[in-house]
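Retro notes (design track)

What went well: tokenization of the new backbones is finally stable.
What didn't: we kept losing track of which sequence belonged to which structure.
Fix going forward: every design gets posted as structure first, then sequence, in one message. First example under the new rule, 576 residues:
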């Protein structure tokens, strides 16, 4: 089974909202979330998708470090009660943990003990088809939580009780519109982006008032007639051109700029939508107050490989070649490690290099940052074309991390995977998959003489040098990573169900723990009453499972019988 094959959720119900309550009752003494706290979060909290607006995935906590991590032990676990891919980091605000799971569920827990406060379950429509039944977490603002749902609504919950405060429809799930991301909350605006590029939608980013749920602005990722960039499309292709924006953006609080990644063009073969196809496979710089596009950078033009570039770039202040500058760092699905310069009105190309093997690009134009294509490895209509890496790319959505301690970027990469398909022209039917090929025709092939597949990499973005790597011989690496001031890198992502911690400087494996399932979700760390904890959701499924299914029988040792079922794992040092 491939990533794009159908996956029907077993969750059926009505379109109403339901909250249930655990014995512990509502949360007392909840700490309201303000702009000041989001812009400068306390070290012990994790209140944003990657902890901070810059998206670095870095924690300043160092109680757990390279010298004592060997003493890390589980202190509590919590079963979520649902199957499929658990992809959200636990969100912690002053001792309260919020866990988002597949099937529209949010659970509030005591972050110290694992005791349940309340549980919200959204009841989803009976006719909802969930291609990616998952969630990447909840946004926080004042005394509310914000959940983006797979039936394409944004829901505000009372943080203390789990009761729904407001519910706003974003688009129509019957047309293939849905959401899986954690909303980004900036100055009282709840910003989301939609999924659905596989269904021929027109992508967008939209903002809602945090108190009322009223839509404030909507910016389409594909320009209409009369808008800048429209001339990069032919005819009416722009109306169904994809460009979904299904991952959480990052935010520069100094320049008041949101950076949002945009997905692939639709359908896949580029010959079906001639032109550069702005703003697909790009990063957009948006004004959070109006949604206006300030500027952009397109990673690759006329996407034909399903290489979404939705993972927003990390904001890093760095020095390179003796120059200090504000950068955007993005290890791309297109196999290129991008280093860009962000300015108030322009994104400049600085450097780029392949971080996994690729036969698609011959190089990068030094002046423009435009990749130089090898046309023999670009899918077209009527011909089977093979390319490396596969459609899952050098790195899919699982996020990389940057350590302020080591100044290195840690990339959950997939090496030695190739793929291919035959382009086929089919009519667009709203709500049905529209890939430009048959799902059963999509190939995932190990590269000849491959000796490993998953690869945790450490790169110096200032020099372009790979500092270390850890190889996984019989598994892909499909999970986000996190770095800490204790010089640790936290990672799941493998089919052996292990959670691992590495030395951030050397790559040495320092600790590992078998969990109930595979880990796709982002690990995180927090502090309560002077004790540092490390937490992660274990729960295999969605694309990670599809990769395993596609490779089962092709590669010796590839195990696709990974048990599903979500469990929150929390660890702390054994002080005995």
């Amino acid at each position: 089974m491939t990533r794009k094959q159908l996956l029907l959720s077993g969750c059926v119900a009505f379109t109403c909202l339901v909250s249930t309550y655990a014995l512990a009752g509502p949360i007392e003494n909840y700490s309201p979330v303000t702009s000041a706290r989001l812009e400068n979060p306390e070290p012990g909290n994790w209140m944003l998708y990657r902890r901070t607006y810059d998206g670095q995935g870095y924690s300043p906590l160092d109680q757990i470090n390279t010298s004592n991590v060997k003493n890390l032990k589980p202190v509590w676990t919590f079963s979520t009660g649902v199957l499929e891919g658990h992809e959200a980091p636990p969100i912690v605000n002053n001792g309260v943990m919020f866990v988002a799971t597949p099937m529209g569920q949010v659970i509030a827990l005591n972050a110290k003990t694992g005791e349940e406060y309340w549980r919200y379950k959204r009841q989803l429509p009976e006719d909802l088809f969930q291609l990616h039944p998952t969630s990447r977490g909840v946004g926080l603002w004042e005394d509310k939580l914000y959940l983006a749902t797979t039936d394409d609504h944004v829901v505000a919950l009372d943080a203390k009780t789990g009761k729904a405060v407001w519910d706003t429809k974003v688009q129509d799930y019957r047309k293939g519109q849905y959401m899986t991301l954690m909303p980004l909350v900036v100055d009282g605006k709840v910003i989301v982006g939609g999924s659905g590029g596989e269904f021929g939608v027109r992508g967008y980013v939209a903002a809602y008032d945090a108190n009322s749920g009223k839509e404030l602005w909507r910016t389409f990722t594909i320009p209409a007639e009369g808008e800048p960039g429209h001339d990069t499309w032919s005819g009416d292709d722009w109306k169904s051109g994809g460009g979904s924006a299904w991952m959480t953006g990052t935010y520069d609080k100094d320049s008041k700029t949101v950076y949002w990644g945009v997905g692939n063009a639709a359908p896949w073969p580029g010959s079906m939508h001639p032109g550069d196809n702005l703003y697909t496979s790009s990063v957009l710089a948006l004004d959070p107050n109006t949604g206006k596009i300030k500027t952009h950078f397109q990673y690759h033009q006329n996407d034909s490989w399903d290489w979404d570039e939705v993972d927003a770039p990390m904001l890093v202040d760095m020095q390179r070649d003796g120059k200090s500058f504000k950068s955007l760092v993005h290890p791309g699905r297109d196999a290129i490690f991008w280093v860009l310069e962000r300015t108030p009105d322009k994104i400049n190309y600085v450097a780029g290099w392949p971080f996994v093997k690729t036969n698609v690009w011959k190089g990068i134009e030094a002046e423009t940052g435009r990749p130089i294509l090898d046309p023999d490895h670009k899918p077209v209509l009527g011909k089977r074309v093979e390319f490396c890496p596969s459609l899952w790319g050098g790195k899919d959505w699982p996020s990389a991390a940057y350590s302020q301690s080591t100044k290195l970027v840690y990339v959950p990469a997939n090496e030695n995977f190739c793929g291919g398909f035959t382009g086929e022209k089919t009519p667009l039917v709203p709500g049905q998959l529209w890939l430009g090929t048959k799902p059963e025709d999509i190939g995932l092939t190990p590269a000849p003489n491959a000796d490993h597949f998953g690869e945790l990499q450490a790169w110096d973005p200032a020099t372009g040098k790979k500092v270390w790597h850890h190889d996984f011989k019989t598994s892909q690496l499909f999970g986000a990573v996190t770095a800490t001031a204790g010089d640790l890198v936290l990672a799941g992502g493998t089919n052996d169900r292990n959670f691992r911690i590495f030395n951030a400087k050397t790559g040495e494996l320092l600790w590992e723990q078998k969990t109930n399932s595979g880990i796709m979700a982002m690990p995180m760390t927090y502090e309560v009453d002077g004790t540092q904890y490390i937490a992660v959701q274990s729960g295999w499924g969605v694309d990670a499972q599809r990769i395993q299914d596609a490779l089962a029988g092709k590669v010796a040792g590839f195990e696709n019988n990974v048990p599903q079922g979500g469990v929150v794992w929390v660890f702390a040092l054994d002080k005995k």
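Added context from the reviewer: Confidence is low (pLDDT under 50) at residues 1-23.
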